[in-house]
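Below is a filled-in request sheet from our internal design queue. Each sheet records the structural input a requester submitted and the sequence that came back. We keep these sheets so that new team members can see what a complete request looks like end to end.

REQUESTER: design group, bay 2
PRIORITY: normal
MODE: inverse folding
CHAIN LENGTH: 108
BACKBONE (tokenized):
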């Protein structure tokens, strides 16, 4: 993974994991996040990949390099950008359990 440099953590650990098994962080804006999906074109495909790793958020260029080096794997691969974006949006609400949502941890 790239060096963190002056990069700030996305937040503080919330003390639990998402449905995908990723650590959840509480941001300074009281948002709960675990991945913040990014859709990136690679050759003739579009891939979805978490932008948060080890509590830090990475740029698309950094994520592309991480995928190509085998450091991380996409959560999904698609033939079109539209399909990839649809799948990323569909995945997001499923990452936190209904119990966390019911406790108002999403600001709902």
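RETURNED SEQUENCE:
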């Amino acid at each position: 993974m790239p060096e963190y440099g002056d990069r700030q953590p996305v937040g503080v650990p919330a003390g639990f994991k998402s449905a995908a098994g990723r650590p959840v962080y509480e941001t300074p804006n009281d948002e709960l996040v675990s991945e913040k999906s990014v859709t990136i074109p690679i050759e003739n495909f579009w891939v979805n990949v978490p932008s948060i790793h080890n509590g830090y958020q990475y740029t698309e260029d950094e994520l592309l390099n991480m995928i190509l080096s085998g450091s991380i794997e996409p959560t999904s691969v698609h033939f079109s950008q539209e399909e990839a974006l649809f799948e990323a949006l569909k995945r997001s609400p499923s990452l936190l359990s209904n119990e966390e949502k019911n406790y108002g941890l999403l600001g709902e």
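SHEET NOTES:
- The chain is about 25% helix and 30% strand.
- Residues 30 and 36 are 15 Å apart (CA to CA).
FILED BY: M.R.
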